Amino acid sequence: MILMSFLMSPVFGEQPMEQQSNSIDELTRYYSDLEIDLLIEEIREAAHEAIEQAAGEAARAAFLASLEREAAAIREAQRWRQEAEMRQQALVELKKAGRKNTFLAVAIGIFGGLALGISGTQAIRN
Fold first, then answer.
1. Cβ atoms 56, 44 nearer than 8 A
2. Spatial separation of the C-alpha atoms in residues 111 and 54, rounded to whole Å
3. Residue ranges per domain, the chain?
4. Which alpha helices (DSSP H) does the chain contain, by range?
5. Assuming Cys at both sites, which of 10, 22, 67, 114 could form a disulfide with 14, CB separation 3.0 to 4.6 Å?
6. What percent of the chain has a predicted confidence (pLDDT) above 70?
7. What does the pLDDT look like over 30-40, one tens digit per residue?
8. Strand, coil or helix: what is 120?
9. What does pTM read for this prediction?
10. CA distances from 115 to 29, 83, 102, 118, 120 (A)
């Protein structure tokens, strides 16, 4: 406002030719109580709508975050399940190999004992 008055005033201190009007008075308007109440009600309704919209968006964001966490937990559980199945399969194969090795050791022991017994008996008879 002050800058504008300096720009509007004549150069070299000349007096203005016409009276400048007060622009604040021109912008000032008086509102009735009804207009103020209506304006307050409109602002209140807009605020309620904005709050409801923000709450809805926050709920959607929370729901999506929850879904993402649940999906990550499910993927992690599936990974652990697959790893457990692989370890279980390896354990089954180790048990089979252990049984086979035990059977072979018993068979070798029996046949070796028999061979030793027979050869020992043969040696003693001779």
1. no
2. 85
3. 25-125
4. 2-8, 23-27, 33-125
5. 10
6. 77
7. 778 888 999 99
8. helix
9. 0.45
10. 124, 47, 19, 5, 8
**DSSP code at position 73:** H
Go through the chain and tell me how many residues it has. Answer: 126
The token duo for 70 is 């649940």
Report which residue type is found at 68: E
Which residue is listed with tokens 């692989």? 86
Cα–Cα dist 31/28, whole Å: 10
- The predicted-structure confidence for 62-79, as pLDDT tens digits, reads as follows 999 999 999 999 999 999
What is the rounded CA–CA span in Å between residue 73 and residue 65?
A: 12
As given in the structure block, the two tokens for residue 31 are: 């509102």
Give the residue carrying structure tokens 């048990």.
95
Six token digits for residue 14 = 């000349």
- Residue 9 near residue 16, CB atoms below 8 Å: yes
**One-letter identity of residue 117:** G
DSSP-assigned letters across all residues of 50-64: HHHHHHHHHHHHHHH
10 contacts 16 by C-beta, under 8 angstroms: yes
Report the distance separating Cα 116 and Cα 110, nearest Å.
Answer: 10
